[in-house]
Amino acid sequence: MFDIKDLYQEVIVDHNRSPRNFGKLENADTTLEGFNPLCGDKLTLYLKTANDKISDIAFDGSGCAISVASASLMTDAMKGKTLDEAETLFNEFHNLVTTDDDYDAELLGKLAALAGVKDYPARVKCASLCWHTLHSALQGDNTPVKTE
Amino acid sequence: MNKPDTANNIINTPATFDIENIRKDFPILNEEVHGKPLVYLDNAATSQKPKQVIETLDAYYRESNSNIHRGVHTLSEKATAIYEKARDKVKEFINADSTKEIVFVRGATEAINLVAQSLGRNTLKAGDEIIITELEHHSNIVPWQILSEQTGAKLNYIPINDAGELILEEYEKLLSDKTRIVAVGHISNALGTINPIKTIIDKAHAVGAKVLVDGAQAVPHTRIDVKELGCDFYVFSGHKLFGPTGIGVLYGKESILESMPPYQGGGDMIQMVTMEKSTYNVLPYKFEAGTPHIAGVIGLGAAIDYVTELGLEAAAQYENELLNYANEQASQVTGLNFVGTAKNKTSILSFTLNGIHPHDIGTILDGEGVAIRAGHHCAMPVMERFNIPATARASFAFYNTRQEVDALIQAIDKCQKVFN
User: Fold this and answer.
1) Cα B414 to Cα B406: distance, rounded to the nearest angstrom
2) pLDDT at B405
3) Which terminus of chain A faces fewer neighbouring Cβ atoms within 10 Å, N or C?
């Protein structure tokens, strides 16, 4: 039975209304922009790493509830993660929003709330923009990210 | 933002406008989306097709499919005859002087590119000027930007005011003896503003500039008379006029088209080809290289027959009344802001909701069966002008009803419930 609340779960509505880690991070060592040319969503990701760990992370920009909530949840989940853990989480999130395969609910935690996105092909990019931006930033790529 | 002016439009539904029977002509309107009746309010993106068009396409492929302008066999003659008959219908529909002035292209976009490249690239030089507007669809911006890069001609934009209307005083300041081309949309796809194109055309001609009118949004809603307008080019797409996708029309004044070199080379656009050189075909074939979208042209002919029989004036009157009703209903929704409040506008309700992004509106409305467009509407400069990333846009056709407007309003209410 179709229910729009499968997509707009309470966690997503909450993180859209009050995004965590929102705002410019002073002294960030990496700043990267992400842009979705299809819908105009824009975000900037700020990152601090130390000892192969994400010591601090924040974002700002404008976008739909899915993209804002995804960035808010992602930044929450990424704080304190090692770069290897970040890569694992990136892959697991990608699996969550693009495939019907089982996902690691424990690893994803609150991020699992974005599972509904896979039923909305046009919205997958909204959820994944911040992730691709982070992925590029961690790889040391400094060209702004575009979801095509 | 202000509420739109609803006082200037017509109040009464024409007695002859039989909406129930009209809806029966559009089979897709019986579809369901997520278990709810489809409420199709994305007509500015593309319109639905009446069974008269669908059946014409079907009959063409079943009974007349053949290449045109070549065969001596019966089928080819049959296909050629209905293809050329459709050209005649287009000529009558926009009141052109001759079928030589009707060039079939893929759509309004290709028509604009054709004019920019064939006319523009061959006649413009550095120091010349092109004028377009802040309201344009990307299809009436990018071809001119490319031309500007190629020739060194300067591209100027007529600005818009807070209601989404062109500021004509600024247009007059931009006009000069350097102005070569003025390209302007008849009706804005993002906001629904009807531009005063007759005035724009006359002022451009007074300085010797050529004028192209992008009529993609206008042909489904207004009767077009190119002679009365006096424009040099008028372009539109078939799919917004209840016809097939992939077919469009470039109208150009014969003398100007005659002076322009071909846009593409290939079969059908030549008279004689030797290994040294070729001589080109007469108008309009000079601009129709290759096997055209024959079925599309024939389907467009059927669409023109359909709207002609329906009566575009009566349809426009009905749509105006529907827009007024939608404006009234929407103005009662708390937190809804109208984007584009021109006095003279048609069939488009562009809006934002406080605290809810247009893409989320689009998805939630879809869940209620209501199809709208959410985004920048291929008019990013308009969004920039209003300092918003996107809008939600409901766009109406003559087959929409008050009940569908009510469904839209209820779905908007659902959006607010999801987010609050």
Assistant:
1) 12
2) 98
3) N
Residues B232 and B119 in one domain: yes
Instruction: Give the Cα separation of B384 and B333 in Å (integer).
Output: 25
Residue B189 and residue B297 in one domain: yes
- What's the total number of domains in chain B? 2
- Same structural domain for residues B381 and B291? no
Q: Which of chain B's residues have a Cβ under 8 Å away from the Cβ of A64?
A: 357-360
| Residues B380 and B369 both lie in one domain | yes
- pLDDT tops 90 at residue B243: yes
Interface test with A, best of B33, B359, B384, B415 (most A CBs within 10 A): B359
The set of long-range contacts for B172-178, using a CB threshold of 8 Å and a minimum separation of 24, is: B172/B203, B174/B129, B174/B131, B175/B131, B175/B203, B175/B204, B175/B206, B175/B207, B175/B209, B176/B129, B176/B207, B177/B207, B177/B208, B178/B127, B178/B128, B178/B129, B178/B154
Scored b (16 or more CB within 10 A) or e, B254-272 reads eeebeebebbeeeebbbee
Indicate the CATH number for domain A18-146.
3.90.1010.10
B413 and B370, same structural domain?
yes
Per-residue confidence (pLDDT) for residue A23, from 0 to 100? 97
Which among A17, A42, A64 has CB closest to B359? A64
pLDDT for the residue numbered B15: 53
B213 exposed, middle or buried (CB, 10 Å; 0-12, 13-18, 19+)?
buried
Domain span at residue B140 reads: 54-308
| pLDDT, average across residues B340-358 | 96
Domain membership of residue B36 (yes or no) is no
In the predicted model, is pLDDT for residue B236 greater than 60?
yes
- pLDDT band at residue A127 using 50, 70 and 90 as cut-offs: very high
Q: Where are the beta strands (DSSP E) in B200-244?
A: 210-214, 233-237
B5 — pLDDT class (breaks 50, 70, 90): very low
Q: What is the ipTM of this complex?
A: 0.92
Give per-residue pLDDT as tens, B11-34. 444 556 899 999 999 999 999 999
Phi and psi dihedrals of B194, rounded to 5? Answer: -90, 115
Give pTM, 2 decimals.
Answer: 0.93
Contact A65 B357 (CB under 8 A): yes
Please tell me the distance in Å from A62's CA to the nearest CA on chain B: 8
Hey, where are the domains in chain A?
Answer: 18-146
Confidence of residue B6 (pLDDT cuts 50, 70, 90): very low
Residue B173: predicted pLDDT: 98
Position with higher pLDDT, B401 vs B6: B401
Residues B181 and B279 placed together within one structural domain of the fold: yes
* B73-98: b (≥16 Cβ within 10 Å) or e: eeebebbbebbeebbebbbebbebee
Q: Is residue B46 part of a domain?
A: no
CB B129 within 8 A of CB B180: yes
Structure-derived torsion over alpha carbons of residues B33, B39, B44, B49, reported in degrees to the nearest 10: 80
Interchain contact, A2 vs B418, CB within 8 Å: no
